[in-house]
Amino acid sequence: MPRLQPPRAGSESSHARWGWLAVVAAMAAAAVATTALPPSAAPPAADAPAVEPDKVGVFMRAKLGHGQKVLEGLTVEDYDLIEKGAHDLALASQDSSWQVLQTEDYARQSDEFRRSCNALRAAAKARNLDGAALAWMEVTMKCIQCHKYVRDTRREP
Questions:
Q1: Domains of the chain: residue spans and CATH
Q2: Gap between the Cα atoms of 51 and 142, Å rounded
Q3: HSE-up of 69 (CA within 13 Å, CB side)?
């Protein structure tokens, strides 16, 4: 596994890489903080969940584990780990536990998430750290947008 090396003094590409990694780490931390599933006492919206909330919580925690693999891979420049995490995330999105709402919007967002995961895998295969970091930010944004959509949909009267 490659080791993280300090940047060489005056190396512009090293500074840019460290900057990207800092941004990726901040985005991942924000994703973890905003994607946690809070318990809800409100009754479900008209589009009731397809699976029980307990199962969804366990599943989402596993999804976070896949995301942590990606982040670790990005920080230590381990392209195999990035690719594996992205692959596992894409596979998870096809599991029945993922399908918490049965709406066209939710299906569209799931498709967009899978496309983002595939872009992340492609960047990892190409050994393009900056491309993988950018793709990871897109995956993270898809998570945040979808979780917001689910919360908003469940709050609707």
A1: 12-41+48-155 (1.20.120.290)
A2: 21
A3: 19
Residue of 136, 77, 143, 137 lying closest to 109 (CA atoms): 143
Q: Distance between terminal CA atoms of the chain?
A: 51
Q: Check pLDDT > 60 for residue 38.
A: no
How far apart CA 137 and CA 147 sit, in angstroms, is 15
Question: Phi and psi (nearest 5°) for 49?
Answer: -60, 145
What distance in Å separates the CA atoms of residue 86 and residue 149, rounded to the nearest whole number?
22
| 101-119 confidence digits (pLDDT tens) | 889 998 999 999 999 999 9
Q: How far apart are CA 124 and CA 133, in angstroms?
A: 9
Helix H or strand E encompassing 114: helix 104-125
74, 82 in Cβ contact below 8 A?
A: yes
